[in-house]
Amino acid sequence: MRKTTLLTISLTFLVVLPATAQLGSVWTDFQSYAGDLQTYLTNNLTDTLKPIESEAQSAINNATGELNIPNPIAAGQNVRDGMVWYYISDKFDNNATVRANLASNEVNRLITRGAVASVMGEDGQIRLKTKLEETERNLREVDEYSEETDKISNDLLQEARNIANTIANTTPLGQISALLGINQSTLQQQSIRIQRDQLKITGENLGQTMQMNQFMQYSNLNLANISQQVEEANRARRVDTSAEAARLLRTTSQIDLFGRTEEN
């Protein structure tokens, strides 16, 4: 009876542990991630979107939903809508629509970098490390419980065989019942081993998924950097073109002025 109870307890732990390894605090972890993202946005708005950081912050706040993360599409649209009517004029780049799109793209890049920093930053790495450590620890506990269950099952199987040998000399019905009991215990033991192996595979998948997530974050960061470089190159060309046009206009005006002076 005692061994049967221990087997039941071990099986209960085996069923509960996988959920415990995945339980953690999923919502709390996500809230922490969202908080890191918002902190990054607040701390970097001034450097990247000066002098319209207050308008950009308002656009991001208005685009933030129930998960406390901004919708980049809505945030970009809010910035564009506001910038069309309000912008700081530039000597050679004063197209309101173009500058609104530039500001919108910069907000999207800022959100992307904030998401990367929230995952790869100090707090993000602590969260991932905790998840991986808890997963590995729970897998070790599953192994320990599984080994204990194997030992209990082997003891029960041996007792069942001894009883079967005793009953086998009595009636055919008793012999059949004994064989069924042994087969049921064997199948139960094999099922536990299969569950243990499945848990290991789940743990490996979790680790690989997290690694893949890191690679995706690096890709997002690279794309954001490439986008910024392209826009900076385009702006430099626009400024150069405007400056050249202004120089030609000034030269033409001077020539025209000198020509009129000579004619007079």
List keywords for this structure.
rod-shaped; mainly alpha; 264 residues; single chain; 88% helix
Overall description:
Keywords: Signal. Residues 1-21 form the signal peptide. The protein is mainly α and 264 residues long. It has helices spanning 2-23, 26-49, 53-62, 72-85, 96-120, 122-167, 172-263. It has one domain (2-241). Helices cover 88% and strands 0% of the residues.
Gist of the model:
Helix content is 88%, strand content 0%.
Give the count of structural domains.
1
Mean pLDDT: 71
Provide the structure class: mainly alpha
Percentage of residues in DSSP E strands: under 5%
**H/E element string?**
HHHHHHH
**Spatial shape:** rod-shaped
The main pleated sheet reads as: none
Low-confidence stretches: 1-23
State Rg.
Answer: 35 Å
Helix percent band: over 70%
Query: Would you report the number of β strands?
Result: 0
Instruction: State the end-to-end distance.
Output: 124 Å
How large is the count of helical segments? 7
Could you outline the blueprint of secondary structure elements for this entry?
Elements: H1 2-23, H2 26-49, H3 53-62, H4 72-85, H5 96-120, H6 122-167, H7 172-263
Helix pairs in contact: 1-6, 2-3, 2-5, 3-4, 4-5, 5-6, 5-7, 6-7
